[in-house]
Protein 1
Amino acid sequence: MTDTLPPALPAAIDESRQWARLMGMAMLGAIPHDGVNREALTPLDRQARRLLVTWAIEAGLTVSIDEMNNLFLRHEGTDPTAAPVLSGSHMDSQPSGGRFDGIWGVVAALEAVQAIREAGLATRRPIEVVSWTNEEGGRFAPGCMGSMAWSGHRPATTWDQVADGAGITFRAALDEQMAAEADLPRRPLGPQPGAAPFAYVEAHIEQGPRLEADLLDIGVVTGIQGSRWFLVDITGQSAHAGTTPVGLRRDAVQDMVRAIEALNRLTEDPEDVLRFTVGRVEVHPNSSNSVADRVRFSIDLRHPDAAVLTAKGDAIAATVQSAVKFCTAQVTERFTAMPATFQPDVPAAVEAAAAALGLRSLRLASGAFHDAQFLVPVCPTGMIFVPSRGGISHNPAEYSSPEQLAAGTRVLAATLYDLANR
Amino acid sequence: MTDTLPPALPAAIDESRQWARLMGMAMLGAIPHDGVNREALTPLDRQARRLLVTWAIEAGLTVSIDEMNNLFLRHEGTDPTAAPVLSGSHMDSQPSGGRFDGIWGVVAALEAVQAIREAGLATRRPIEVVSWTNEEGGRFAPGCMGSMAWSGHRPATTWDQVADGAGITFRAALDEQMAAEADLPRRPLGPQPGAAPFAYVEAHIEQGPRLEADLLDIGVVTGIQGSRWFLVDITGQSAHAGTTPVGLRRDAVQDMVRAIEALNRLTEDPEDVLRFTVGRVEVHPNSSNSVADRVRFSIDLRHPDAAVLTAKGDAIAATVQSAVKFCTAQVTERFTAMPATFQPDVPAAVEAAAAALGLRSLRLASGAFHDAQFLVPVCPTGMIFVPSRGGISHNPAEYSSPEQLAAGTRVLAATLYDLANR
């Protein structure tokens, strides 16, 4: 690798163009304190995609979308029939998210391909920049719907009835966005028979504190910890807050408190590796002088070890059932992603590219899930991390500097150039 | 009293007309299982008010509204300058409420006045039927805004900035409704100097199990337990659910759980008289894979003894502060109604009316708060309860039979006739 990296390529990465594009994207859904709220399949999402398409067309790429609204920008190879190298991430954000999670991986892939072209270089294989639909899962849970459907992990119609907070179904939102993008050429969903990508590379901010703490430039990601998502529905009885003795109530809020306490005990981990989060709570009727008759809350459970994730996750339903005292409870698992280990090819290429560029890298696993984990069964897969200030993410304060991001994009460009010429 | 009740008056109470009116009102905002969702200052509220106005005009009453949108229907006395007797309740419901809470008190007062007129009887004093604005406080907290402003307990502009779940302010909703009712004659807000009502009588369902359990017809209400409402705002930091170690989080949901546990201990009452309710919870950003940075929850605390209510309520802020572990908390008291004791006049008149009608009555205090408690400083005040099936209220299953309601309305008519001829 070292001797095949043309010096013109890293030099062609335009740090200020990439930063300007990220800041421009951050205007679409800007919220206070530099945050972004641009959820999947919203008008803001459409605006962001249009902007990306404009840049791609200016850069000479060809645009297409599939039935899941995954968006592809293709750089042609000298052998157009060769299996392409795929690189990208997602453009949707958390409802109270930052300016880099997801969007940088898409903008970086475009910047890398544009740099290859502007440096006058060619690649044997085509390179396709991809933006996967609804990675975050904030509006429509679970996340990674676009990559799950594309990779055949789940059928494309799996989430038709999933509704957002306003009652709009994923199917309705998807149909609306597809109609709004009817002018974009269509491509079939997923890798076609005998035409799997040669490799998939995703650039992303670390969303953890490790690279910053160790003064490193690049994370060579070796795999992704597993995640299991659950919904807990507690059903009691609504009653008047002033007249109903506490002892006669079937109060769903109080049983939620009991259930979360019991789950805290179940997920206690002295090593602090197991991640247990209740991030979403919906109370009905949500009136201050009515005892709640229904509560729904989410559970996000993660661990890098499949055995731990299986054991703890499988114990959740029974833990909730024995904790609720006056109500009934139902626990539904709605997303499962077992820990993923990347094939050695892409991490090795990333590591070599970082070394060739004189950057300090570290092999590490991802705490967050990413579209990349659904690519593992399809083709050699890997990810490139850059440092996140304070390890903060899913928050307006999320930050990586223009220099850190440009360094990551140089590694991505070198990796893509390497893989696309194999 | 007994010898002044003309037999034509109870006979003129039309049980089926009253039931039909209640069932008609229940169609405006009908929700499954016979429930009603007709919150204050909504289009449904306006429809219900129009319907009431139609009935009032047919019955020969004159209609007016004040700047708080309180609605008055006046039956003229033979001495129009005499202080009027006031009777009514409210027409708004809980978001998941029933068909009788509030609305029956308004429909019953209209039925009572209409019966007086149809029986060919006259009263020396005018009788005014009133519907107070936003008693429930479900959409705009706190409740009883209309009666609080009318009685001078709080200025009419106190709640201008209070917003509902959709961000609409009370002021905007009030202005919209006043504009929609611009054709109705206006009257000044509150009792005018030297023109306080002679008495106020409010008919209401019991919302408790006592009358039903003791096979009684009528509750002679002697007072109302006190209520204190608080909002607790917990502020932590949003973070990624997959990457942020649990030990490094400032998780607002977890600190809410700690606060509620501590409040449960503070409000533990072996006699089960103290009522502590967390009925409303709002989580931000409310995304299943983000640690919550903000939680707001409501506290509704009630007790018939002012000393207990003061001591427990005053301890809430410190209890929350010492319970939260990683976040900051702010506790705001937003509604206070100390226990109210009715002057003897109206309860005595209600008791005599029930006896004259051969109904079994019981003196009891109200567990729920009512507009009546804000009338106590203004004029002699009282309430009439009828049994609630199973004591259930603030719930679609709320029920009192046509016969039980008609009996209550006969007592109300006799009481109003008695008071309006003094």
Protein 2
Amino acid sequence: MSDAREGAPRKRGRPARTDAGDGPGARERILTAARAEFAEHGYDKASIRGIAKGAGVDPALVHHYFGPKEKIFGAAVEVDFASALQAQETVTSGGLETVGERLTRYILGVWEAPVTREPLLAIVRSAVANETAAAVFRDLVTVRLMARVAGELDVPAPRLRSELAAAQLVGIALLRHVIKVEPLASADIEQVIAMVAPVVQRHLTEG
Amino acid sequence: MSDAREGAPRKRGRPARTDAGDGPGARERILTAARAEFAEHGYDKASIRGIAKGAGVDPALVHHYFGPKEKIFGAAVEVDFASALQAQETVTSGGLETVGERLTRYILGVWEAPVTREPLLAIVRSAVANETAAAVFRDLVTVRLMARVAGELDVPAPRLRSELAAAQLVGIALLRHVIKVEPLASADIEQVIAMVAPVVQRHLTEG
């Protein structure tokens, strides 16, 4: 991520190292604050000033580490997807016979816990409203996640199939957690997984 | 819709009947302009002034017919769902054995044509970003659309099943038309329908 500095404006110079909040952990605090800012305000209304305030640092330090808002968003999203990728390896390493159940449990599971749901809500809200955020989301989803799943499949049109499976899971997350349609919003998650896993399995390996 | 006037502010009085654009068709022009405004700017940024400008009428007339922004949004969405409902009857009247293919073709079809896609994009963008818009969307989806489909089904948990089917189709629309994930975004729509219809059928009638 060291090349993220390339986009940083230089006209105000390097931020003073005596700024409150600089030092070990500042970068992580900025990313955490960025995810909270994007989740609360969406991409368009999120501000570097708000992110800096949330992290307890000078706005110049945010610029210094990440550059413009687009790059902060990319970095914040990338962290989420990096941890998702680790789990994804678990998903694909367990054999294709049960990949539908594992993928469904994993994706719907990260939407259940508020701590992982909030960054995802930020990504979805931002990507729906803003083309820059959509492009960041698109590249990460296709390159990092679904292309890897598709690479494991031994069927025709594996990428299209993996995206139809993703569409099922993204649609459930949207209706359950964003639009909050009942009875889906209040349904027991194990019941939902039991009903959806066979469909995801079918997309990925059958027909 | 005559009670929509209840929310209209009175302090400026009834708009003068000599206002440019008042008269037959003004109400429909306002709704068309409202859908365009919500589509372009989303719920939060859409303004009554912008809607009035698009319809060629005084902003007071927009207030007069529909009241505050929330009610304009509800009316604009309701028109879309009223026509959707007509088609929905066609979907459910053709027998349960092929309901998956007909529902898939209908829902994905309205997303293919720009003239019907734009209002849907407006609804999705608005509902994702704003709780008021989400509530309008939620009530219309559950009460008007999916509850009717569910009423035709002879399986356990028909409403939950119909929402999982809706989630599959909404997710595809989102990834294909909003996030524009490839290869789904460029895939032949008939190929997509052929791959998805059996899954929707399974949600609605099998297992």
